Amino acid sequence: MNNPYMIDWAITNKCNLDCLHCRGMAEKELDDETVLGIAREITSLEPRWVIIEGGEPLLRRNLFELLEIMHRDKIKTYLITNGMLFDEEIARKFAELNINLMISIDGADKKSYERIRRKASFEQLKKSVAIANDYGILDSCPITIGKHNQHQIDRLFKFAEEIGYSKITFLGLKPCKDYEKYVLNAEEYEQVFFSVIENQRKYKMDIYFDEPFFKPFLKEHNIDYSPNPENGIIVPDVSRCIFGEYMFIETNGDVKPCTFAPVVMDNAGRKSLGKIWNDMQNSELIKKIKDFGGRESPCRECKYLYECGGCRSRTFGLTKSWTASDPSCPLNRKGI
């Protein structure tokens, strides 16, 4: 049986912000000893990489012990922070541990940034990005896109470039509070995709869009995404929905087949990750979702079905069906 594609781990439910798009946190978090035990288990599963997030991961008191375990076992590690608590001392430690740091933006100016990321400081954001750049640990800039900022694409590119980013990771808004109010529909996704592609050409920044229908969209519109120095559009080898092909570990140890799925497979504080992973792969729900042939129309007839599959957590959040077509897919809208 294959190892997890990657592991996404929310290590703390503590946060110093109140972001518009927050998915919410579990009420409890695991004790230090259990967390370090899970870190050792993660390395034994040999995922391609691990994402450390929260809440705000810098509020986890044994963060550096956890990261040292990942570093010792040569696990590629990304850490997502809001940057408000970041400083040179932390940057130096992260550099020693080969951390790939991602500091979220979401708004292109002080007003929109602080409206989306409530309690955050626009000036501190810029300082944190500069420090991370100085220490050579700055990776991509995560930007969650929804109705709240869909018309800022050009300004987001400009701002990201100005403060020192060379790569943007766009994340389609996933189930959260007031989700239906902010999630993009199919027509809006099409507009956002075209805007991202246009601005990538203008600013020459690397971009990755974390949506399963992004690659099919590029193919349908004959947009080059081949890996070469002239093209900054990044499409991973596995671009489809990877529901059930990775694990998300909640702050209380609950393990889910997707960061945004309302489904708990088991708890890493009670059972080994390896056993949970094996059980997940054999569960009827995961088998059902991995069977792309079981999708409903129009998804079922789409020529890109097996390259995409639609986002299952979004689809369930909007339709309450695991097999329905993704309502936000710009290709299904046109019956491709």
Structure overview:
It contains 13 helices and twelve strands. The longest helix is centred in the middle third of the chain and has 18 residues. With 336 residues, the chain is α/β, with parallel strands linked by helices. 36% of the residues lie in helices and 13% in strands. The strands form three sheets. Strands 5-4-3-1-10-11-12 form a seven-stranded mixed sheet, covered by helices on one side. A three-stranded parallel sheet has the order 7-8-9, with no helix packed on it. The chain has a two-stranded antiparallel ribbon with strand order 2-6.
- The N- to C-terminal Cα distance equals 34 Å
Radius of gyration: 19 Å
By helix and strand content, what is the structural category? Answer: alpha/beta
- Element-level helix/strand string: EEHEHEHEHEHEHEHHEHEEEHHHH
Helix content: 25-40%
- What's the story with the biggest beta sheet? 7 strands, mixed
The number of distinct β-strands equals 12
Strand content: 5-15%
Major sheet: arrangement of strands: 5-4-3-1-10-11-12
What would the average pLDDT be, to the nearest integer?
94
**Tally of DSSP helical segments:** 13
Report low-confidence residues grouped into runs of 5 or more: none
Outline: globular
Could you name the key traits of this structure?
about 325 residues, alpha/beta, seven-stranded mixed beta sheet, three-stranded parallel beta sheet, 13 helices, 12 strands, globular
